[in-house]
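Input record, target 12 of the design panel.
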């Protein structure tokens, strides 16, 4: 290798045009998914606008706007009118997500519609499955998750994304979809979902905070990466088509490890707390939101994520 002054790495940093010409990681709107919350009525969130709750009618207007801006995909979460211990609203044919899917499918034919498959928004206790005493009953929850996934596909979902972290749920959902004639529907598995402090704003938006205890008994310990690879390996064996890591920014090393180990698409969820921190700092003049967002999203893609779920997706459509 030539030494200074023959080699000057700053030469290709001198202008914006040169920097762009040799940029290694590029942001492409095709790789981003916008989360949306559908609820019985509109509830704006002025501090964190993407976490506003939208009625079905408002959801359609937002979907049409996203489609016009060039956003390719959305991930739908539902907040039901009522909850029970089983979370039966999750698979109700006339449930809030099912109504939202049918409306979006009719109004926004070019959007890819993904749905979160979990029971936490629908259970009265806020946990991701049915309870046996104070513990979440893994095996009893699987059938309910499978019923939810089938109901979403029947209502128009292009792909389902189980986020519950029950053991064996990918296999149960795959079998149920196949039996329902939906063998072509992909499963985007939240394969490595950590018990994280960064979910706070989401839980408020989705009304899904547990009423007692926490989710450390089924979501992953943030200290572990080898366990994440075991989770991914099991999910691929059970039929997962895409592996997701959540949250994204505290787990860039996990995203990289999953990318290097598996030959399936890798997704990452740029979660509400990551978004909220930048928004809060920008509101106080501590950083530039656009610059910080673009840097964060670039880092997630650079780590190896093929697709990114992010609350900045709509903004990104304008920025790009």
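The sequence produced for target 12 reads:
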């Amino acid at each position: 290798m030539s030494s200074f002054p023959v080699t000057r790495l700053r030469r290709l940093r001198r202008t914006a045009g040169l920097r762009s010409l040799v940029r290694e990681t590029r942001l492409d709107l095709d790789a981003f998914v916008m989360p949306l919350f559908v609820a019985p009525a509109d509830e704006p969130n002025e501090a964190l606008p993407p976490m506003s709750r939208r009625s079905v009618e408002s959801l359609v207007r937002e979907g049409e706007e996203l489609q016009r801006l060039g956003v390719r995909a959305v991930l739908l979460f539902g907040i039901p009118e009522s909850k029970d211990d089983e979370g039966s609203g999750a698979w109700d044919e006339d449930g809030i997500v099912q109504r939202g899917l049918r409306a979006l499918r009719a109004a926004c034919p070019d959007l890819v519609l993904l749905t979160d498959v979990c029971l936490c928004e629908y259970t009265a206790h806020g946990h991701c499955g049915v309870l046996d005493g104070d513990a979440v009953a893994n095996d009893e929850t699987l059938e309910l998750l499978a019923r939810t996934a089938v109901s979403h596909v029947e209502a128009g979902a292009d792909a389902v994304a189980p986020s519950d972290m029950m053991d064996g749920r990918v296999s149960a959902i795959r079998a149920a979809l196949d039996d329902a004639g939906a063998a072509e529907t992909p499963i985007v598995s939240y394969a490595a979902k950590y018990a994280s402090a960064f979910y706070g704003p989401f839980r408020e938006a989705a009304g899904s905070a547990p009423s007692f205890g926490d989710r450390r008994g089924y979501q992953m310990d943030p200290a572990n990466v080898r366990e994440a690879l075991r989770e991914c390996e099991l999910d691929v064996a059970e039929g997962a088509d895409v592996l997701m890591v959540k949250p994204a920014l505290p787990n860039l090393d996990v995203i990289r490890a999953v990318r290097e180990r598996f030959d399936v698409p890798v997704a990452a969820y740029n979660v509400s707390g990551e978004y909220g921190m930048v928004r809060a700092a920008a509101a106080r003049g501590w950083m530039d939101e656009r610059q910080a967002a673009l840097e964060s999203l670039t880092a997630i893609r650079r780590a190896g994520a093929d697709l990114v779920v992010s609350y900045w997706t709509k903004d990104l459509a304008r920025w790009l």
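Residues 27-319 form a domain with the TIM Barrel fold (CATH 3.20.20.70).
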